[in-house]
Design brief:
Phosphatase 2c, domain 1, five-stranded antiparallel β-sheet, 2 domains, elongated, 15 helices, 12 strands, about 15% strand, alpha+beta
């Protein structure tokens, strides 16, 4: 009962602005579908000529059926008209066709008034409920009810012309029973229309929300893209980076920290999670790195300690891995601080790529102090460093296994003779796709190639 009450209230309640707009947009297309399907369906009416008593009355009944065909064809031809004309045509020509169908059924009983034909006609008349339910393809709330009332009035008229012999042999309930099916069909069809209108409005709202979110994501992507270094010249260092985010934006981020005396810091982080929240945290980390005390920028361990404390204090629900590289071009030394991040990969000039193992814990949990143990290595002209996020090595290959560090080192060493880092980037991506069958990265992925000039 509560559900029925809700449906009745839905029928009489005023539409919201969104519902009105959506219905106005879609009403014509649904009306055209109704016209097309009703045209196809009416051909089944000709099967009446194969049923008793109509096969005895083909010359008399056939003109009614041909009239239905003409009416439905006229409606089909006019289906491209605008809404207000289309609505009038459906109620005018459509109702005329439905009336002809009703008359074609009732005619047999008037012509051959037997008790057997009465019950046959009643059964055939109840088929008219299909025509009423067909109106539920439209979005007009009154369509089915108007159809039900229309057929009910026809039937009351039909009862009025029924021969006295049949009236005396049948009960009023038997004579009026088709009206119950008409009204019931009108009610069911109206419920269907109400629910359909509600569902369409809900889908429209979801579509609008999705479109809005997509616009917000595109804007967020532009903002995040603007935060990445572009055409930045770093004296003594060439670089090339690649990044891919399945969700348009993500928590993988890197930045250069330009220092005095030509030295430079390289910060790269991978914030846990995906999407907008991770991207925002990554942006916050960028700001923190940019504004941190200058002395801390010279010490990877202190810089990472500071970020760990801030994440715990300000964003205790988020954690991230990070690596900070301090290139000292005066002493040709690289100081590495690694907070739970994949190891830095180094390739001395003319040699092979290998991992530099470091010790550190992930940011955001305040696990230890210092969060990372610094490690120092020497570098020279032509040396290359490869730093990346775990999305690269966790990608699933065609064999069903992760690419892994071994697979990555295999690719890097295969192309260690390539002179230009731009060509190296292309070769890495090509091998990942061709040799390992990885067409797309499922996680946020970034790698950065650094070469000492």
């Amino acid at each position: 009962m509560p559900k029925l009450r809700e449906l009745i209230l839905d029928f009489f309640r005023s539409e919201t602005k969104i519902e009105s707009e959506v219905v106005a947009i879609l009403k014509e297309s649904y009306d055209r579908e109704y016209i097309s399907y009703s045209f196809i369906l009416h051909f089944f009416f000709y099967f009446l000529l194969l049923l008793p008593p109509y096969f005895h009355l083909i010359p008399e009944v056939l003109p009614f059926l041909l009239g239905i065909t003409v009416a439905r064809l006229l409606l089909l031809i006019q289906r491209k008209r605008k809404d207000k004309y289309l609505k009038n045509l459906i109620f005018g020509i459509g109702m005329m066709a439905d009336g002809l169908f009703y008359v074609s059924i009732g005619y047999a009983l008037i012509k051959l008034p037997t008790l057997e034909n009465f019950y046959l006609s009643n059964a055939y008349l109840m088929v008219s409920s299909i025509l009423i339910l067909l109106y539920s393809m439209r979005l007009n709330k009154l369509s089915c009810l108007i159809g039900a009332i229309y057929f009910s009035l026809f039937h009351l008229t039909y009862i009025g012309f029924m021969p006295e012999t049949l009236i005396s042999e049948t009960s009023f309930f038997a004579r009026a029973f088709p009206i119950l099916t008409f009204i019931g069909s009108g009610f069911i069809g109206s419920i269907f229309i109400i629910n359909k209108r509600k569902n369409i409005s809900s889908l429209y709202r979801l579509s609008e929300e999705r479109r809005f979110m997509q616009q917000e994501l595109e804007l967020a992507k532009k903002v995040q893209d603007a935060l990445f270094p572009k055409d930045l010249v770093i004296p003594g260092l060439r670089y090339k980076y690649y990044r891919e985010n399945p969700n348009m934006i993500g928590g993988d981020f890197f930045d250069f920290v330009q220092l005095r005396e030509g030295n430079v810091g390289v910060f790269l982080t991978d914030v846990a999670g995906h999407g907008i929240s991770s991207a925002l945290v990554a942006s916050i980390l960028k700001v923190l790195v940019s504004t941190i005390n200058y002395r801390n920028k010279l010490s990877p361990s202190k810089l990472l300690d500071f970020l760990d404390e801030r994440l715990v204090k300000d964003l205790n629900k988020y954690h991230a891995s990070a690596i900070y590289l301090f290139f000292d071009f005066q002493e040709l030394k690289l100081r590495i601080g690694n907070a739970g991040h994949p190891y830095l990969i180094h390739c001395p000039r003319g040699d092979s790529y290998y991992e530099i193992e470091t010790d550190g814990a992930i940011l955001g949990f305040n696990i230890r102090h210092p969060i990372a143990v610094e490690k120092t290595v020497s570098f020279g002209s032509g040396d290359r460093f490869f730093v990346y996020t775990d999305g690269l090595i966790e990608s699933i290959t065609s064999s069903g296994m992760e690419l892994g560090t071994e697979g990555l080192l295999q690719i890097l060493n295969k192309h260690k003779e390539i002179r230009k880092i731009e060509e190296l980037e292309a070769a890495i991506l090509a091998d990942i796709k061709s040799d390992f069958g990885i067409d797309a990265f499922l996680d946020d992925t970034m790698f950065l190639i650094l070469e000492i000039e």
